[in-house]
Amino acid sequence: MPYYTKLGQLPRKRHVQFRRPDGALYSEEVFGTEGFVGPTSTIYHIHPPTQVAGWKTLYSTKPEYVETETMRMRHLASAAMPPKGDPITGRVVVMGNADVEMSICVPSDPMDYHYKNGQGDECLFVHYGSGTLHSQFGTLAFGPKDYIMIPKGIIYRMIFDETPEGDPNPKFIVFETANGSHILPPPRYLSKKTSQFLEHSPYCERDLRLPELPLTFDEKGSFEVRIKARDCVHSYDYSYHPLDVVGWDGCYYPYCFNVDDFAPITGKLHQPPPVHQTFEGHNFVICSFCPRMLDWHDGAIPVPYNHSNLDSDEVLYYVEGNYKARKGIEIESISVHPQGIPHGPHPGTIEKAIGATFTDELAVMCDTFRPLFMTAAALDLDDPKYPASWEEDTFPTPGGTHAPDGSPLNKKGKGKGTTVSNGDIPKQAGKKVRHPNAVDTWE
Ligand SMILES: [Fe+2]
Prior knowledge:
With about 450 residues, the protein is mainly β. The chain has a domain at about 265-425: Jelly Rolls (Sandwich). It is built from 2 helices and 30 strands. The protein has helices at about 350-355, 375-380, and strands at about 5-10, 25-30, 40-45, 55-60, 65, 75, 90-95, 100-105, 115, 120-130, 130-135, 140, 145-150, 155-160, 170-175, 210, 220-230, 230-240, 245-250, 255-260, 275-280, 285-290, 290-295, 315-320, 335, 360, 360-370, 375, 420, 425. It has a 9-stranded antiparallel sheet. Strands 4-18-17-9-14-11-12 form a 7-stranded mixed sheet, with no helix packed on it. The longest helix has 6 residues, at about 375-380. Fe (ii) ion binds near residues 309, 314 and 337.
């Protein structure tokens, strides 16, 4: 993260003697990025972090992409994914490229080891389930709709609470950098002088949940840390608990951000996806489409225009909302709209949306600046009918459902003088009426 914080015990100066109660020195470790000129933290271990034994390669994590020469829209129905593995081994990569990989995890087993991703930052979005993430930097309690940001190199263990009867199985999606870049807030949200979130940012420091105590686990024994590096997971043995940090300070640490704390920016006319941007890595962005008021111009069309985002592949994961207007899309669906072909509202949805004042959609988007490739696991979830789902008449009612002056047609096909807005909601003298049936938009 770009701003400074600290937790636990620290010596007054960097790189000076700092002693344990038994008189031995704590082991200082500088956790530096980008050749020690990027975000850095300094952490103090009970044991030298270099003391490891027994290393072996367990399995490959390199995604195998298929249909790499096929360019088409896709819909992956991820609700069908069965639970498997633990919060690490259960991750199923569905798509990716040289910059970022997206995986889905529906874990069935607990993690009985610690894990470090030594090759990329991780951005987890928790759809279902709650629990605790124990890390070298402290403890994060997490729950539904939390982004959990875990920068490269941090040892952690993710423990889900028991699922109450009737609740869905825990599920989260993962965006992981494959190009070594770090996932951070967009620079335009931050002050160049202080790194403080600026007034126009849709979230700020108060919205971020930082690691808390407990921090230190002073235990001897045999502890496995699995380390992802070189597209393989390796198993290392530690003779002490790997979360043996007594204190740290700096600008590099894991944190949570709940998407309900994102304050959407709205406009008189349609606002483009960058206003929803939440994070970015090199060559990709992550956006949050949250419930919000819609465009208030008298003639506004609240759903987006057809668009060619010429330099991006667009991926949306649908979290909450009413997606009936989108052919086949449901909660937990993933849509993929590649660069090379435009996309936009489904037939009938433009006229239907006119007059709507609110959307209750919640979706997470990842736009990549290079094409995304599917894995075989994605093809298992693929809905082959989706690319043709725009084939019906876009305007099924001849002449549309509105008169040329923009007023909705009544049952006799008359426009002017009608007293209803979209959905037959009567207008109150001079006041705008909030539409009770929120419409979903389409980015
Ligand atoms: Fe789009």
